[in-house]
Amino acid sequence: NAGVTQTPKFQVLKTGQSMTLQCAQDMNHNSMYWYRQDPGMGLRLIYYSASEGTTDKGEVPNGYNVSRLNKREFSLRLESAAPSQTSVYFCASSEASTGTRYNEQFFGPGTRLTVL
Amino acid sequence: GNSVTQMEGPVTLSEEAFLTINCTYTATGYPSLFWYVQYPGEGLQLLLKATKADDKGSNKGFEATYRKETTSFHLEKGSVQVSDSAVYFCALPLNSGGYQKVTFGIGTKLQVIP
């Protein structure tokens, strides 16, 4: 199984350009997530989707939009890129978690984005 | 709210040295605790976990014990290898409205030299 796949692996944008990061999982997971990883700050949640058809904001949603296209795919869009969005972006998925049952998140390989 | 504190590093060790990466947490209730590992150029993957106080998680020679009295979950390995070079994240999951909100530490980079 491929697990979680992300495209592209690398991208360079100019300020103001737009782009969409693609993510797909083949594990039949309900929940999907987008994180950004910055030096000294760990991972921060941008958006998540608890199930197909729902999306919600995480810690740092400003400047981003998402689409849960179907159960497999969850895309992240930057409408007008800014240098502050230079980061490594990770998509993740997991089985739905309830109560005190915490399920492992599975991560994609990441997209390294540079905004000039 | 929940928080996780871990040393930033980098930590540089010689092969076969003993490793400790400290992690302390702040949370209400009785959370589970995870360690994730990120190898160069890859995404994070779960290394080990513990679901209640005094539980010991273990995998690939790594161990961590959930200590409620000291609110800690330190990662240890008795003899590191070059292949253990990676970034290690302590993590605290919380179920919130149908999704899993995870508070990650900042990550500790480990470099093991031959």
List the keywords.
A: 116 residues; mainly beta; 0% helix; B: 114 residues; six-stranded mixed β-sheet; four-stranded antiparallel β-sheet; 54% strand
Rg of chain A, nearest Å: 14 Å
Distance N terminus to C terminus of chain A? 36 Å
Beta content of chain B: over 45%
The low-confidence parts of chain A are none
Rg of chain B (C-alpha, Å): 14 Å
Question: What distance lies between the first and last C-alpha atoms of chain B, to the nearest angstrom?
Answer: 41 Å
Output the structural class of chain A.
mainly beta
Helix and strand content put the structural class of chain B at mainly beta
Mean pLDDT of chain B: 92
Query: How is the biggest beta sheet of chain A arranged?
Result: 7 strands, mixed
3D shape of chain A: globular
List low-pLDDT spans of chain B.
none
Please characterize this protein's 3D structure.
The complex is a heterodimer of chains A (116) and B (114). Chain A has 116 residues and is mainly β. Chain A contains no helices and 11 strands. In chain A, strands 2, 4, 5, 6, 9, 10 and 11 form a 7-stranded mixed sheet that branches. A 4-stranded antiparallel sheet of chain A has the order 1-3-8-7, with no helix packed on it. The relative contact order of chain A is 0.33. Helices cover 0% and strands 54% of the residues of chain B. In chain B, a hairpin with a 2-residue loop joins β7 (56-59) and β8. In chain B, 38% of the residues are buried. The model of chain B has no long low-confidence stretch (mean pLDDT 92). In chain B, the strands form 3 sheets. In chain B, strands 2, 5, 6, 10, 11 and 12 form a 6-stranded mixed sheet that branches. At the A-B interface, β5, β9 and β10 of A face β6, β10 and β11 of B.
